[in-house]
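Entry:
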Amino acid sequence: MMGPLTDFDWTDLHTFLEVARGGSAACAAEALRIDATTVRRRIASLEDALGLTLFVRSGRSAQLSGDGDRILAIVSRMEELSKAISRDATDASRDLVGVVRVSTMEGFGSYFLAPRLSEFIRRHPRLSIQLVASQTILNLSEREADISLNMVRPQRGRLIVRRAGQFGVGLYGSPGYLEHAGVPSVLADLRSHEFVTYVEELISVPHVRWLPDVIAEPRSRFACTSLVAQYEAAIEGAGLAMLPTFMARRRGGLIRVMPREVNLVRDWWLVVHADLQNVPRIRAAITFINEIMRRDQAILMSDPAGQPSE
């Protein structure tokens, strides 16, 4: 009776194929670049696992038995399927086709990355992008995203982490608010101003706590969980807001105040799982992101005078 499949080594099947093709253990040994003793041992192991006699031996030659002919037909089909799998994998790795999911912070995803991703899909007609712009960071180890671009540098996991660039953070107010409340000129003036800020206990990424670097106890009657909402509220005059310069530059309506005194710099970290870094579609997205981060560095950063860096 044939034993369960787990009782034999798949390497023995390959050896069986070479003996059947060459007609002897010596020919199979030459084809496989192993010694004839190893060939004979593998055939004996396969016959024992299957409970069949696969070859009728005559001197140094080996002719297939009736059972051997049946097994050869099956194993030949297995070989063709193996080649088909290999061809399919090779073609897939060669072609830039499929979906790439990129996770990033809400403000960066909406105001910097999203406007540029149309260029990526024009370059690669067979690739699609899923942009997850969120206030939380997705788990790459659980394949919630292919690439993460965030302020947090992960310390654990089989992850490839590289600094993709930096961005500036400044203090902004609307013309209407500044006309009503006055334009602060020194840090002490900020004590009399209102601020639009985060709901402290709902902050999921500590790196967005920008305001404490500027003022210890800001006055705030408008707090929200969304950076985009803070931006819109500041435009409508709800108070001063700490915003990335790439957001404030995207659309008019805000004036930067005290650019020399309030000029924070933060890092962007590009993260990909080690198993995915060389997948062509992932590599194409990483290359594109690195390219636009370098190309548009002036948009991401501002000098202390409030002008784009050169």
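The first strand starts at residue 55 and ends at 58.
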